[in-house]
Amino acid sequence: MSFKNHTFKLREEAILNATTAALVEHGFELMTMDDIASRVGISKPSLYKHFASREDLVAATMTRLIQQAIDELDSYPQNMPAIDQLRNLLGWAIDIRLKGGMPFLPSTRSSIRDMLLRNQAYVLSIMNMNQRLSTLVTQCQQDGSLNPELPVLVILYSYYARTCDPTVDYLLAYSGLDHASIRDHMITVSFAGLIPLNRSQPT
Amino acid sequence: MSFKNHTFKLREEAILNATTAALVEHGFELMTMDDIASRVGISKPSLYKHFASREDLVAATMTRLIQQAIDELDSYPQNMPAIDQLRNLLGWAIDIRLKGGMPFLPSTRSSIRDMLLRNQAYVLSIMNMNQRLSTLVTQCQQDGSLNPELPVLVILYSYYARTCDPTVDYLLAYSGLDHASIRDHMITVSFAGLIPLNRSQPT
DNA sequence: GTCTATAGCTGGATAGAC
DNA sequence: GTCTATCCAGCTATAGAC
Fold this sequence. Notes:
Chain A is mainly α and 203 residues long. Chain A has helices spanning 2-30, 33-40, 44-50, 54-74, 82-98, 110-117, 120-143, 152-163, 166-174, 179-192. The first copy, chain A, folds into 2 domains: 1-51, Homeodomain-like (Arc Repressor Mutant, subunit A), CATH 1.10.10; 53-192, Tetracycline Repressor, domain 2 (Orthogonal Bundle), CATH 1.10.357.10. Chain A is globular. Chains A and B meet through helix 1, helix 8, helix 9 and helix 10 of A and helix 1, helix 8, helix 9 and helix 10 of B. The structure holds a DNA duplex (18 and 18 nucleotides).
């Protein structure tokens, strides 16, 4: 019984890993249950014993990723400045992308967003994440490390967007830059933008 | 003959418009030829008389969009500073998004990218666009309006990415900000980043 | 050149044997 | 709980009548 439970858990991990790989490779719309089953080495009905539908499977995969991000945040020292927490978490997310992993934000497509929002576990995890990040952003605006004139949501969504920025993929494919450089440039551009430092700038 | 040709052109415009709307609504993968035909009010075989395949249709739609961007660039006065040309073009692209139009960069998904790269007209237009933008970026780095320490490709891809930034969609859906504010914030964040102006900043 | 009708295929989901 | 085999829906693309 405990053994069965254990192997069940292990297989579930394998399924989520395979789904992550399939999502990265094909994207949500072209990800098929056949492909997942074949990657894991099980049959499709067995796959459906673990996840009742394709939607459930995708939502579970996204939920695990968000939980990993929250765990990453939790691993930072209590006294780390908020801006450094944001910087480090973005670096963590970009590293995942560079290693072939999945971005936070699955899509701007409303069909996918709506589908995920129907999944309770996913919604809970994303609300948790939003709460954590909003607090950090507000702290940064108060201590002057982020622009206090920008609405919180503008910063928050821009931050999320950088975790799924296609620039990473294009730089990987065409620039010849190594992973560390891509990571550093992405962080620089995300926080400091494209214009030179130490400027008084007209917007 | 000339009349037929004229209506043919008009219908082709209508097809491209319908495809744009379908791409915005459903995304590339879920865009169907049935849907396009029904939006235009013609039958599927007639649609295939205009475009030999779904891929051709999508490529033609993207090509038209890129050509419109080049036309926009061409409309700027010769003596407009390069940085203002970049700012204005980004504003133009975001306005299109806000009005329900399509972003430049269709996807980071390699299957779509590869498909488009097999289309000669598309490749030519995108090369033209890259050429124009690269020149502007280099000029800006020389006159100090863009950070000269960043590789050109980092700036170029980041710039493209802002034209398809999901932040626009999320701000539209959840922030309550009006179009002009969203547009202005997007431009500010793209060029100046998230940190306050007039800073000497560690990164 | 336009339509109706359909071929051919793929993928989500399941029935039923073991 | 796992498999093989299969159902059914929906899609691209085309044949063939007009």
